[in-house]
Design goal:
Layout: H1 30-41, E1 44-47, E2 50-53, H2 57-69, H3 76-84, H4 86-97, H5 102-115, H6 119-122, H7 131-150, H8 154-168, H9 177-195, H10 200-203, H11 212-222, H12 225-234, H13 242-252, H14 258-262, H15 270-297, E3 309-315, E4 321-324, H16 363-393, H17 402-418, H18 432-451, H19 456-479, H20 486-501, H21 503-514, H22 523-546, E5 550-553, H23 576-598, H24 618-634, H25 638-651, H26 671-681, H27 694-698, H28 701-724, E6 728-730, H29 733-738, H30 743-753, H31 761-777, H32 787-802, H33 810-832, H34 846-854, H35 858-863, H36 872-885, H37 895-902, H38 910-919, H39 941-954, H40 960-967, H41 974-983, E7 1015-1016, E8 1054-1056, E9 1062-1064, E10 1071-1072
Antiparallel strand pairs: 1-2, 3-4, 5-6, 5-7, 8-9, 9-10
Helix pairs in contact: 2-5, 3-7, 4-5, 4-8, 5-9, 8-9, 8-11, 9-13, 12-13, 12-16, 13-17, 16-17, 17-19, 18-19, 19-22, 20-21, 21-22, 22-31, 23-25, 23-26, 24-25, 24-26, 30-31, 31-33, 32-33, 36-37, 39-40
Length: about 1100
């Protein structure tokens, strides 16, 4: 027995015998058809209400299995067996009357599993497009639906339940491989039956009526099969089948609403009756209003003659008024009649809504399913979700199995919230790790939608399932505020702090809105997305109102490193001005070269032609030598240039580029002088060291290199320190809402607004609330000045006027108020801005909305209102002062200081003056007048004494080095100050002078920090919700030898129960605010105040057996 895995399906027992003995043709031959009929006729027959098997029954069943193995791509044999209805006439009776025969039961079970395989798996999870294949696919689905109707017999389920119970009672020591296969086959058979899609057009069932799916569920209930499913879900010995049971539960409850099941009672409540009556009255009034409008549009009596009409201001050919026969309305004018029809591409067509819709079953079914959900929450939810999460993290599940995890999280948490809301029943999934896991899956699904275009619809459905789970997590978190237990409220506050503190959680809502794709994602996804955003924004608003000063972590934009500027070419590529400057510079250098070449000037002896520490090629070394010579020439250092030239010639004596040794006393015509001239004018494309100055050259090379190395080290340390330091800022709710004022977000909300008639009342309220925030709170109503939006407003106001005042729903009333406000505001704007009507054709940004209100170009004026401007008089004064004082430099004051003393405008700063001098072209760059630090001057005694005093004063500060350098009377480079402190033995090493962040232990902080959340100023206690056994938390909080009481973290009233993390004391069942088996919270928001504890007993949760690799699910919930 082998498994054929169709695209990640679970437990499909399709046996494969290798290449078949003969190949099937397109149509099954009459011989094979007759063999199939003969095999079916020898299975058995009925006699006096009882089914009797034939002696050749087992051999005939094996023949049918053999035929199914040899089926072709058209599945002809499977369709023949479906037409014969062998499952209903023979296989199920054999199962009922001969359930004690183990051999017969096993063969019949294998045949049932094969026949009931989902049609989508037979076609490798892709609905066929070709005509004949599509017809075969639909025929197989119709056979499956007839099979499902046959399984409404409770006796069949009694036989299956009895066999499954017998096998489950056996211990693992005595359970054979055949028994495990039989258990898995039974679970797969149950999965196949409940997976069969419904046929509403054929069943014609309404709400509160019994469908075929309900009949199957009731038959399973009569056999007490749900008790075995609950046992498998909660037992630690049956973890191999946890995904089977989870999948079966999801298929059993796929047509049910958690809210409807939670409200199910023995009799219908008065609220349900009132809602039904209101819905009927509203539908009746809408129908009567349409009929009334239709009757009013028609004339009261049919005239004998239609009459003729003339069109005003329009002449006919005879220059008379144009005569028409019928009146024409504006709504009847259509210019698209004569246009050619263009089919919309398939990838741009809107997706079809999901076929599975919720319905209200009959009362008995709802009560049965409600009891099943209550028992599952009480006994199975927490252990099963812990096991499933462990399998997912350890990759012991298949790629799409997290869809079932998300479905269970969403369904049972919503049911628990609507059915009394006991937090302890769902404590396993109320944790920071759950939010982090769902969020990472949301991001992964979106990335797969972008990369895997072939399965984009499948990834979109999985994204929708994960979104529902995230929405329910937020709603459950919001409901925890209403619990009477203070510890539950404190846990909710701590989780909210994490969600609002970290930027990843704040960005996800806006990210999903901006990346909505209406050609792939359905309107139901859009409604759930808007509802999730509404819940998150509402919680964030309430949180900020309670805590006026909330500090959050924000993403720090990476500082772009300045690119090295390309040096202007030294040769003919330069302009005319550049050539003239080079000629002048060469004339200045040439005189010094003559002296150096004659030997009248002493040459330095410590020059090195190239950097030998680099692993460069020979050509690169030559380029390095030429670059050093050219740099020395342009720095007007002729002696150094000559020394470098001769040192290079000694290394490469055979190269003509470095010239030959001069033999005469006139060096201007010698080979060395000519070589230096060529090197000076050459365009050397090589990274040269910066131009050396006389002061730099005078310094010893060792000191120069050491200074550069220290400077580079300090800069790297500073950059690393800035990257490590978290960027925190005070949170502003209005700034957060302003990020939603984008055209893409407005388009998404207005698309949902256009479906206001079919939207639930909650969705309409969510749309109104967000548009109200943007148009009223932010004063950005021009964002809604769009023709399609006004068309929706027109329909809303028409429906509002057509209904009676008592029949208008609250959501329609709010929509009408919003439409009235926006239209009135547009009319007022159009009085001043005549182009407002043209703006209706475009979606607008915040800049466009501002300019529509305040005039075009006003945004640019407001943006430049704070820019420093220089008048013509001030520029003339600056030029005159610079010409006067450019050569007057004193030891204490430079040119800029003298200019500032004599300027009439005292508001100008030194930086403004230097920048304006550069803009006017008076100075080449600003480095000349920067307050540079003295690098090579020796330390005086008073400077050393001042340094000691400053270090003693600020040694306990957060940034000691910065405070010392800011208060030094004589500025020096950072590396020089650090070296002096180490030399004076005030600090042991450079690390001791690094900036101390607020999250390090032993440092003072200005406010108390929550556990993984924002720093809440003025709060008295914090609740630690960190994971005590998470492997990824090691090293992010306190060291392992620190106690939880540090950093102001209150742990009173908390107790630890094993490796599962913290539990809240005082609840009927434990509220686990952490995930005991989470490994994926790395980087998900442990703030500096979090205490990290070492893991206990390894990973929490018992590792299940390795047999889950045998499991093979059907399509996931998305597919």
């Amino acid at each position: 027995l082998q498994r054929a895995r169709f695209g990640g399906s679970r437990g499909n027992f399709v046996s494969v015998d290798g290449p078949s003995q003969f190949s099937m043709s397109n149509s099954v031959s009459s011989l094979i058809h007759s063999d199939i009929q003969a095999a079916c006729s020898t299975l058995g027959g009925w006699d006096e209400g009882k089914y009797f098997k034939e002696p050749e029954c087992i051999e005939s069943l094996k023949d049918l299995l053999r035929y199914l193995r040899r089926d072709d791509e058209s599945h002809e044999i499977r369709r023949i067996l479906g037409r014969i209805q062998v499952l209903k006439t023979d296989l199920l009776p054999l199962l009922k009357f001969y359930s004690d025969d183990s051999t017969l039961f096993d063969i019949v079970l294998r045949l049932l599993v094969d026949l009931t395989n989902p049609a989508i798996l037979l076609y490798k999870e892709e609905v066929p497009i070709e005509k004949f294949s599509r017809n075969n696919y639909l025929e197989i689905i119709s056979h499956l639906q007839s099979y499902k109707l046959a399984f409404t017999d409770s006796k069949v389920w009694i036989a299956i339940t009895k066999k499954l119970e017998t096998l489950l009672h056996r211990n693992w020591e005595t359970r054979q491989e055949e028994d495990k296969d039989t258990i898995e086959r039974i679970l797969v058979l149950i999965r196949n039956i409940v997976h069969v899609p419904a046929n509403p057009s054929e069943e014609k069932r309404t709400d509160d009526d019994v469908s075929i799916h309900d009949q199957v569920l009731w038959a399973m209930h009569l056999a007490h099969l749900e008790d075995l499913l609950l046992y498998i879900s909660s037992s630690e010995d049956e973890t191999d089948y946890c995904f089977h049971s989870l999948e079966i539960l999801s298929l059993m409850l796929r047509e049910q609403s958690p809210q409807v099941l939670a409200s199910a009672a023995q009799a219908r409540s008065t609220s349900e009756k009132e809602q039904d009556v209101k819905a009927l009255l509203r539908a009746r009034e809408l129908e009567l209003s349409r009929k009334k409008a239709q009757m009013q549009s028609k004339p009261s009596r049919h005239p004998r003659f239609g009459g003729t009409f003339t069109v005003k201001n329009m002449k006919s050919i005879s220059d008379n008024a144009l005569i028409v026969r019928d009146r024409v309305r504006l709504s009847q004018v259509d210019f698209d009649r004569d246009k050619n029809f263009r089919a919309k591409p398939k990838n741009k067509r809107p997706p079809l809504e999901e076929s599975t819709s919720t319905r209200r079953s009959t009362l008995n079914i709802r009560l049965f399913l409600k009891g099943l959900c209550v028992d599952f929450l009480k006994w199975s939810y927490n252990p099963m979700m812990r096991t499933v999460k462990s399998f997912l993290q350890r990759e012991r599940a298949q790629s799409h199995d997290e869809s079932y995890y998300f479905w269970a999280m969403r369904f049972f948490m919503e049911f628990n919230r609507c059915n009394g809301f006991e937090v302890g029943l769902v404590s396993e999934t109320i944790a920071k790790e759950s939010f982090h896991y769902v969020q990472t899956q949301l991001e992964q699904y979106y990335e797969m939608m972008v990369t895997d275009k072939r399965l984009i619809h499948v990834w979109a459905k999985r994204l929708h399932i994960a979104l529902k789970a995230y929405h329910e997590l937020l709603r459950t978190l919001a409901a925890m505020d209403g619990c009477p237990d203070e510890k539950v409220k404190e846990a909710a506050r701590a989780l909210k702090g994490t969600l609002f503190y970290l930027p990843e959680y704040r960005e996800i809502v806006l990210h999903l809105l901006l990346n909505f794709n209406d050609s792939v994602q359905t309107n139901s996804y859009l409604r759930d997305l808007v509802a999730m955003v509404h819940v998150y924004v509402k919680m964030l608003e309430q949180f900020t109102k309670k805590h006026s000063h909330m500090v959050v972590k924000s993403k720090k934009k990476p500082r772009s490193k300045p690119k090295p500027k390309a040096r202007p070419p030294a040769g003919g590529a330069a302009g005319q001005g550049g050539q003239e400057d080079q000629e002048k510079l060469w004339l200045e250098v040439a005189s010094g070269l003559s002296l150096a070449l004659r030997g009248e000037e002493e040459l330095p002896g410590d020059v090195v032609p190239y950097d030998s520490t680099l692993d460069n090629t020979e050509e690169e070394k030559k380029l390095d030598a030429l670059s050093r010579i050219q740099t020395a020439l342009k720095a007007n250092l002729p002696a150094r240039a000559v020394a470098l030239l001769r040192a290079s010639r000694e290394v490469w004596p055979d190269q003509d580029m470095f010239g030959a040794e001069d033999s005469g006393n006139v060096p201007e015509g010698g080979p060395e002088f000519r070589a230096l001239r060529e090197i000076f004018c050459a365009d050397i494309q090589h990274t040269a060291p910066p131009a050396a100055t006389a002061e730099d050259v005078s310094a010893p090379p060792e000191e120069e290199n050491a200074s550069e190395d220290r400077g580079d080290e300090e800069r790297e340390d500073d950059e690393e320190e800035e990257e490590r330091a978290p960027m925190e800022q005070e949170f502003n709710f209005q700034d957060f809402i302003s990020r939603f004022a984008k055209p893409k977000v407005i388009m998404v909300y207005c698309k949902l607004l256009s479906h206001y008639r079919t939207n639930p009342a909650e969705s309409n309220r969510h749309v109104v609330r967000m548009l109200h925030r943007l148009s009223w709170d932010l004063k950005m109503s021009p964002l809604l000045y769009q023709a399609s939006v006004f068309k929706s407003f027109q329909a809303i106001l028409r429906d509002y006027r057509s209904l009676a005042a008592t029949s208008i729903s609250e959501d329609l009333r709010e929509l009408a108020r919003l439409a009235t406000f926006v239209v009135r505001d547009f009319v007022e704007t159009a009085r001043d801005n005549k182009l407002a009507f043209v703006e209706l054709l475009f979606w607008k940004s915040t800049k466009d909305a501002y300019e529509i209100k305040h005039g075009y170009g006003s945004s640019a004026k407001s943006a430049h209102s704070g820019k420093v401007t220089w008048t013509e008089e001030q520029e003339y004064e600056l030029k005159a002062l610079y010409d006067r004082y450019k050569d007057e430099v004193t030891p204490d004051k430079d040119t800029v200081d003298l200019i500032l003393e004599h300027m009439m405008d005292d508001s100008k700063t030194r930086r403004m003056v230097v920048r304006q001098l550069k803009n006017l072209g008076l100075i080449p760059n600003t480095a000349k007048f920067s307050k540079g630090a003295r690098a090579h001057c020796p330390w005086r005694a008073e400077e050393i004494e001042e340094l000691r005093d400053l270090f003693t004063q600020y040694r306990e500060a957060t940034d000691t080095l910065r405070l010392i350098m800011d208060r030094m009377s004589h500025k020096r480079p950072k590396h020089s100050v650090v070296d002096k402190l180490i030399e004076l033995q005030l600090v042991p090493n450079r690390k001791a002078l690094r900036k101390k962040t607020s999250g390090r232990r032993g440092t003072a902080t200005s406010s108390r920090k929550g556990t993984g959340g924002p720093r809440l100023m003025g709060l008295d206690s914090e609740l630690d919700t960190t994971d005590s056994s998470s492997d990824d938390d090691a090293g992010r909080g306190a060291p392992s030898n620190e106690t939880p009481g540090q950093e102001g973290t209150t742990t009173s009233g908390m107790s630890r129960k094993g490796p599962g993390g913290q539990r809240l004391v005082g609840l009927d069942s434990e509220l686990d605010t952490t995930n005991s088996s989470s490994d994926d919270d790395a980087g998900c928001g442990d703030s500096e105040g979090v205490v990290a504890r070492p893991a206990q007993n390894g990973r929490a949760g018992r590792p299940g057996p390795s047999r889950t690799s045998r499991r093979n699910p059907v399509v996931d919930v998305a597919a």
